[in-house]
Amino acid sequence: MKRVGKLYICVLILFTFAMSGVGQDAGLSTRQSERPNEAALADFEARVRKYTERREALESELPQLSKQATAVEIAEHKAALVKKVLADRTTAKRGDVFTRDAEKMIRSIINKHYKGRDRLELRKELVEAENKNVRVKVNGIYPESAELLEMPATLLLVLPQLPKQVRYRFVRNNLLIVDRESHMIVDHMANALR
Amino acid sequence: MRRIYLLSFVLYFAMAGSSVQCTALAQGNKGATTQDATTKAGTRVVTLPLRDGSMRVAVFGDAGRGSREQYDLGTLMEEYRQAVAFDLVLLTGDNIYGPDGPADMKKKFELPYKPMLDAGVKFYASLGNHDTSNQRFYAPFNMNGEEYYRIERNGVSFYALNSNYLDQKQLNWLTAELAKDPNSWRVAFFHHPPFSSGGRHGSDRDVRTVLHPIFVKNGVDVIFSGHDHFYERVKPQDGITYFVAGAAGKIRRGDLKDRSPITAAGFDADLSFMLVEFVGNEMYYQAISKAGNTVDSGVIKQRD
Which of residues 35-54 of B touch A (CB under 8 A)? Predict the structure, then answer.
């Protein structure tokens, strides 16, 4: 009986050690899984900043647009900005901002935020929106005549914040980053809403 | 004797009928109107009190199509301006549909409202889902380069918000501005309605989720929005009165849901715009159809 008792205690000790090891591994793997997120966020923000800083530099070469401008001045400024930015982005391609890690991070945020009926409703709204025919392409200009689909306010509060020069925008199931003034598509990711 | 009874009977029902009509208007029968008495010399008679020194404003949205209807309503607004002498207009968004180049701005804004612009009326715009951010620089919209801003007139604060893009930065700005606002009248205007009985769009729950608590907490009294192409006055929500004034360009006939529990009054049979007058702690409002009929009117007390 004593032998059985000792054996039981040994098994218990071994089991405890084994479990604590599992626990450590689990903790480690959780932290590791968070790390790419943080890294992805930092990388995403750096890539966005790289665009906005370059764009600001280009805009600063233009005459400053008055805050009380005429429609002609606004149109001229926009055309000049588009021209300059496009000339500077001849090598721009999809994924420059929405890297694979950034896409994964953003999809995860969106899908955590939208579940069940809310997700279905948003999907329906995106599919039926007036902007559904907009061609999504890096360096493409979002057409003036197309509706600017409202970005859901509660989603904006959980997505990484963007600098003032660029905006998130949905076109169908694509999430775009669009220049606020020139309406140029900086980058886009597909299947934003799973 | 029998004739007298019969006459009394007929008179009773005639009276009852008219009182039913009044009740229907007050409760928001969406087709009901009252005919304004019009006018000597082409000016319009209005139901607002028109007190000396009061603050008078016109409100409308979803106008910028350059259509015949928009021009007709613009002409009517000018007639009311001459009667009411409002010198400020709040635009609830979708001010320019489609392209917004110089020719479009002229056709869809400058020409329809030329008499008012010439008379020195100041238009203050908020951006709708058909407006581009660049319009914040357009001088006649008086946005001073900002998508959201506050103006102050006669002790009334007006907050123009950009409901297309309610990010944390904008919400922080709004909360901070309200916290230091010295005025007791606080009015916000923006495009997407937090409360609406529209079948096409209806209440924007996202906008409501983020904005309504801020309004409640910070003493905002009245909200004007557009997006749904009709007029609606919503029953007070936590003491705040929400209006939908999005019928200045194209009407969405029959879009107001019947028996909506939130509707206090509504009109979706024709284009319309609103007149508003602030007198002390009261705000008078009057919604006017393109035919010149008053489709809703009343007074709101400032929140405590």
Answer: none
State which H helix or E strand residue B115 sits in. helix B114-118
Identity (one letter) of the amino acid at A116? Answer: G
For an interface test with A, the pick among B122, B124, B132, B175 (most A C-beta atoms closer than 10 Å) comes out as B132
Q: What is the pTM of this model?
A: 0.85
In angstroms, rounded to a whole number, what is the distance separating the alpha carbons of residues B45 and B31? 21
Question: Which residues in B lie closer than 8 A to residue A145 (C-beta atoms)?
Answer: 98-99
Show pLDDT as tens, one digit a residue, over chain A (194 residues): 455 555 555 454 544 444 443 333 333 333 444 444 889 999 999 999 999 999 999 999 999 999 999 999 999 999 999 999 999 999 999 999 999 999 999 999 999 999 888 888 888 888 888 888 899 999 999 998 888 888 999 999 999 999 999 999 999 999 999 999 999 999 999 999 87
- Choose from B134, B169, B215, B225 for mutation: most chain A CBs within 10 A: B134
**Got the DSSP string for B36-50?**
PPB-GGGPBP-SS--
Is there a contact between A124 and A132 (Cβ–Cβ < 8 Å)?
no
B137, B144, B169 ranked by CB distance to A74: nearest? B137
ipTM above 0.90, yes or no: no
